[in-house]
Amino acid sequence: QVQLVESGGGLVQAGGSLRLDCAASGGSFSRYFIGWFRQTHGKEREFVAAISPNGGNTRYADFVQGRFTISRDNAKNTAYLQMKSLKPEDTTVYYCAASQRYFATTMTGYEYWGQGTQVTASS
After folding, report:
1. φ, ψ at 105 (rounded to 5°)
2. Residue 121: how many CA atoms within 13 Å on its side-chain side?
C-alpha cells in the first residue's frame, strides 16, 4: 500500500508558476499510474493530469491548455505537476492519487490519495 504526500503549494500572483511534488512511500511507486486532481469546496474532485507508470504517456484536462506539465522520477518515488501561467480560477486544493490498474481521468479510478496542498493565484 502506497502513501502519498503533496507539497509545493502556496500563494503566487496570477501569471506565476508553482511546482507541486507528490512523494510516495510504502509501495512500488514505479508500478502506479499517478493522477493530479483538484477540488473546490462543495464541488466534485476534478481531474487535472495523469501519467503512466514509466512516464511515457500523459493525459490532461482540457482546461490545462498547455499550462501544466505532469512528470515523474521513479528513482526518487516522486511525481510532479509543473504549473505555469496560473489563473485566479486555478485557486483550490490539489491532490495526487495512485492507481495500480487504471490510467484514469476520474477519481473513482484511484485507490490511494494524498492529503492535498493549497494553491492560490491572486489577481
Report:
1. -115, 10
2. 17
